[in-house]
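TASK: fixed-backbone design
INPUT:
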């Protein structure tokens, strides 16, 4: 009896240390290959078997996509998620979208990334995000924390702004970044907004935004990396001021009128004068169909 208990304790410790689930199904074997044996190709084989066997399909699909990304098989990961997400419950679709966005970013599919980010914003405006709840539990570096709809909206807008930056559509990026900062400001998006204005040779507007980060006046500016980046951008502005007349012609604004109008209505809902205690989904219901992303 004592021997059996000892073995169980050893097995439990093994699963805890290696973060491998218990059991002997194909998903468990995939995680063992991935985390213990460090056999990524073998892990993919077992993840496929888990998906085909219906063994923790959601987890197997997402974990397999992560491994494929590490092996530069990003296109294959994208096709796998598109093909098999129908086997996952509705509650898993939002997290699968997040994986897809990361994969699109990895392989440079900016247009697809923008389309999916706009789709996620549309879901928020219609009250369909977080499966209808005002918050969700997220994980980062092993920690769990709560994310509000307001925070998620700002994060998605920040990602959308960066995607526009990759297309050199700096005026569109500026619009989106400013909306994101009005909803839930942070130092990283402030730096990106400053860079966006710099790309348009609008140095006088960029300087105070970046200076706020250096001075620690924006949430997240206590991060030394954010302050260093803001300081570097300010130094870059000093170098570029006298070269402004040499900059190429700026790209035009490329935003749908309905999309901009939708953002404006969202800002009216979340204006600072309104109480933060009002239920978000009731607020956005009145204009749910007015944003055509």
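OUTPUT:
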């Amino acid at each position: 009896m004592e021997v059996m208990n000892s073995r169980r304790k050893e097995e439990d410790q093994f699963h805890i240390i290696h973060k491998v689930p218990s059991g002997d199904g194909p998903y468990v074997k995939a995680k063992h290959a991935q985390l213990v044996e460090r056999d990524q190709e073998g892990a993919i084989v077992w993840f496929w078997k888990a998906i085909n066997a219906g063994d923790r399909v959601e987890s197997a699909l997402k974990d397999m996509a992560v491994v494929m990304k590490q092996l530069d098989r990003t296109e294959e990961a994208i096709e796998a998620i598109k093909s098999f997400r129908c086997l996952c419950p509705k509650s898993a679709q939002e997290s699968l979208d997040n994986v897809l966005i990361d994969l699109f970013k990895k392989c440079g599919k900016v247009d697809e990334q923008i389309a999916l980010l706009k789709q996620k914003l549309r879901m928020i405006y219609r009250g369909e995000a977080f499966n209808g709840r005002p918050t969700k539990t997220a994980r980062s570096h092993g920690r769990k924390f709560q994310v509000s709809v307001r925070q998620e909206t700002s994060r998605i807008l920040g990602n959308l702004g960066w995607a526009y930056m990759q297309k050199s559509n700096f005026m569109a990026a500026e619009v989106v970044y400013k909306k994101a900062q009005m909803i839930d400001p942070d130092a990283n998006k402030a730096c990106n907004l400053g860079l966006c204005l710099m790309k348009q040779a609008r140095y006088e507007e960029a300087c105070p935004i970046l200076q706020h980060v250096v001075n620690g006046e924006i949430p997240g500016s206590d991060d030394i990396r954010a302050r260093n980046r803001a300081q570097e951008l300010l130094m870059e502005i000093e170098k570029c001021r006298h070269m402004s007349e040499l900059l190429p012609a700026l790209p035009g604004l490329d935003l749908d009128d309905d999309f901009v109008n939708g953002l404006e209505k969202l800002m009216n809902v979340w204006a600072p004068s309104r109480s933060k205690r009002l239920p978000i989904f009731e607020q956005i219901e009145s204009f749910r169909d007015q944003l055509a992303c």
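COMMENT: The two ends are 63 Å apart (CA to CA).
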